[in-house]
Amino acid sequence: MKKTSRIAPARVAQTLVYHAVMLAISAVFLLPFYWMAISAFKNNAEIFANPVLWFPDPIRLENLTALLTRDDFPFLRQFANSVFYALSVACAVCFSCSLAAYSFGCLRWRGRNLVFGLTVCALLLPGIVTFLPVYLGWTKLGLNGTYWPLIAPFFFGDAFFIFMLRQFFLGVPRELMDAARLDGASEFRIWWQIVLPQVRTPLIIVGLFAIVYTWNEFFGPLIYLQDRDEFPLSLGLFTFQAARAREWSISMTGALLTALPMVVLFLVTQRLFRQGLASSTLK
Amino acid sequence: MGKSTPSGQAGAETLPRRRRRAGRNEARAGVLFALPWMIGLAIFTAIPLVLTFYIAQARFQITGAPKWVGLQNYSAIWADPAVWTSAQNTLMFAMISVPIKLVLALCLALLLNRVTMLSGFYRTVFYLPFLMPAVAGSIVFILLLNPVAGPVNMMLQAMGLSPPDWLLDPKAALWTLILLSLWPLGVETLVFLGGLQNIPKDISEAADLDSPRGWHKLVWITIPLITPMILFNLVTGIIYSFQVFTQALVIGGTTGKPAEATLMYMVVLYRAAFRYFNMGHAAAMATVLFVVVLLLTLLIFRTARSWVYYEGESR
Q1: Are residues B214 and B140 in the same domain?
Q2: Chain A interface mutation, best of B139, B154, B276, highest count of A Cβ atoms under 10 Å
Q3: Which of A101, A144, A244, B93 pairs as cysteine with A165 (C-beta 3.0–4.6 A)?
Q4: Do B293 and A125 touch (CB under 8 A)?
Q5: Long-range contacts: B146-152, Cβ < 8 Å, 24+?
Q6: Which of A264, A263, A46 has the alpha carbon at shortest distance from B143?
Q7: Residue A23 above 70 pLDDT?
Q8: How far is A57 from chain B (nearest CA, A)?
Q9: Cβ pair A36:B136 closer than 8 A
């Protein structure tokens, strides 16, 4: 940290310009959130009012209560589905991907580069190219309409998260592992006790990413799930909006409450992000 | 087994042997740790990939046995105007949105890469759109861009511009999707910022001493050191934008309203597979997408060797 007792005026001006620019950009990025939030507390007429109502007046809570009681948008049920879906995938991904990423990033074995190369190819492969046969397979197994097709594959790993984690595993100093190896530690123990603590923060980040990705996942649920009570939130919101295009106030409330958990999760875990960054730069 | 000998001559003697054994153990462990993923890769990627090529040469309606039709599906999609329209739209979308997004994300990351009182706030703000479910974000944009009561057009009008009807004008509708895709650039920014913060302090400070000009450092130190992140963002950006689906479905429906302007390749493919249950048609489209993405990626990686810098290569 640098601190100067006397601050040059040019520096003050520069700082002011910087913050003015940043605040303007922030306003642009926040506008959709703000619009969504205020629309959730308006009725339809007020949403389309001209001139624009920048603050809801009166603040209407009826959309919220409507959301909890409507059968064409079983919000609480779908919320629970989303939580289950996201947490399952996050746990699966953290476990399976840290195994593979450790192997690719820290261990030397014949064929490693080939398999990792294939992993990168899988990462780059458009999902739809493999989707249809997998879909037919799940249908044949009779699991179409359940969460199995949406969660089970992540227990084997996921190319994106393996790729991402490997970048972090590469940063773990080789000497650490070699020293443990010469001391006779088993490879499993090295992974668990030496390497994983080094990548704790990246693992948390991967878990959070997995939660966000799953919470927002749309294509898989759209294809595999048919029953409204089984939908996760993003699919529930889509079907509601598609069927009731005029009821903007309810759609906006649904959108707000779908986004809110992710926003809150992020705001809460941000401290973890920053702690992780701080501790990794201390050294 | 793993008995450690005390220091001295005995230790020096067994060291090479122990090293060799450690290497063998390491290799075995490497395979074991990667095994679940290798199985998953086979079940969910390799085998389905081959099957897709197979289905692409069959008439196949989910129920009933597939019937071999050779290249008929390919000639069918070749003759399908919706496929051409959607391919064109998707290509336009990718070619416009990816470069803009990368530049914006890099600029944001550079702006964010300094410590001020509000850093935390800015960072939070730029990540937030990424957390927005695509469905929710798309619905909000429909309202935001409403020509009568949306705040965007209202502000543009106040600035003296004549904004288009984003959702009904076929010429503007694609830009709605592009705007929507630019909003959540938190991941790209996060990746860039991670790269920027990984630049060793001594290198950064040495650069500051060598040249007082900021852009020298940017061009010769910063950007070369984050080329791996640029490559990552570029490749994933192109691939994801070729597969844009959710936003297009929410905004344009399955017909790409208005006038097929937002009709994306994935939407046509989805229609073929899950509306008309024409798996052969859909698989042929998927195969074409695969080939295009493959060629593009190969091209990027071919050139990447000359512009990407990897620290600590050859591990």
Answers
A1: yes
A2: B139
A3: A101
A4: yes
A5: B146/A48, B148/A48, B148/A50, B149/A47, B149/A48, B149/A49, B149/A50, B149/A52, B151/A31, B151/A35, B151/A52, B152/A31
A6: A46
A7: yes
A8: 16
A9: yes
Q: Which two tokens stand for residue B16?
A: 């090479």
The sign of the torsion formed by the CA atoms of B73, B74, B77, B79 equals negative
Nearest to B142 by CA among B152, B130, B133: B152
Do B224 and B309 meet the contact criterion of CB atoms below 8 Å apart?
A: yes
pTM to 2 decimals? 0.83
SS3 assignment, position B66? strand
Nearest chain A Cα distance for residue B249, angstroms: 9
* Residue among B62, B133, B274 whose CB faces A215 most closely: B133
> Do B104 and B19 share a domain, yes or no?
no
Structure tokens at A125: 């492969």
Nearest to A132 by CA among B80, B239, B62, B78: B62
Residue B294, domain extent: 74-307
Q: What is the distance between the alpha carbons of residues A80 and A86, in angstroms, rounded to a whole number? A: 10
Q: Is residue B146 part of a domain?
A: yes
Contacts of residue B141, defined as CB under 8 A and 6 or more positions apart, other chains included, come to A32, B176, B179, B180, B183, B251
Residue A148 corresponds to which amino acid? W
- Whether chain A has a CB inside 8 Å of the CB on B250: the answer is yes
Domain count, chain B: 2
List pLDDT tens digits, range B176-215.
Answer: 899 899 998 887 888 888 888 877 777 777 777 776 677 7
Q: Number of Cβ pairs closer than 8 Å across A and B?
A: 278
Check whether the bond before A51 is cis (ω within 30° of 0). Answer: yes
Fold observed for domain A70-245: MetI-like fold (1.10.3720)
- What ipTM was predicted for this assembly? 0.83
Higher-confidence residue of A5 and B23: namely B23
Same domain for B39 and B176: no
Identify the CATH number of the domain in which residue B191 sits. Answer: 1.10.3720.10
Give chain B's end-to-end CA distance (angstroms, integer): 27
All residues of chain A having their beta carbon less than 8 Å from the beta carbon of residue B287 are: 129
Q: How far apart are CA A231 and CA A146, in angstroms?
A: 10
Yes or no, beta carbons of A96 and B36 under 8 Å apart: yes
Q: Does B126 lie at the interface with A, CB-CB under 8 angstroms?
A: yes
Which of B:138-157 have CB within 8 Å of A? 139-141, 143-144, 146, 148-149, 151-152, 154
Do B290 and B241 fall within a single domain?
yes
